[in-house]
Amino acid sequence: MASSALQLLGFLISLAGVAATVAATFMVEWSKEAQGKHRVYEGLWMTCSGTERTTCEIHQSVLKLSTEVQATRAVMLISLFLSAVALMVSTVGMKCTHFMDSMPKSKSTIALIGGILFMVSGLLAIIITSWYVKMIVQTFKESHRLQSREFGNAVFVSWGGGLFTVIGGILLSCQRCCRSRSESIGSNELLSTTKSKSNYV
Predict the structure, then answer these.
(1) What angle do CA 133, 135, 140 make, to 5 degrees?
(2) Tens digit of pLDDT for each residue in 3-25?
(3) Is residue 200 exposed (0-12), middle (13-18) or buried (19+ Cβ within 10 Å)?
């Protein structure tokens, strides 16, 4: 029961991480630049600018985008795809669901695969976000601080989403390890009890 509750907790944490990653992917404020009262916000899909009222423009051509935006967009989409697959796989492999109840070993393996997919998805989001921040900082230094460009709130949301997804994946993956360890301990205790009884006889 406790193992099933921990598995469900890992799934919910991963789900929260995936939701944060989706939000970060479509947020506009990945980087921001201030030119007096005029502010420019650049996201992975559109750019918004203005003073009091902002107007947004969707990126029409991928080739016109900077390298960090193209790479970040691609990797974040891959991360979301892996998360979607992990959600479906984990749902099948969780103990609280009734899928594959007749094959408990295979079900446990599927839960492990789902946890690993969550971990890979979260790591991808963390790595590409860190690289994006590095590119923004590098551009800021190379411009000799003439531009006040800096990273925005979407970066922190993406970091948090990736971290939650990794933690949830770890909790899901640990279930098979804990189960194997408990089974080995139980078998060793059974063997020792049997040996002691046989010696007594």
Answers:
(1) 95
(2) 677 888 888 999 999 999 999 99
(3) exposed
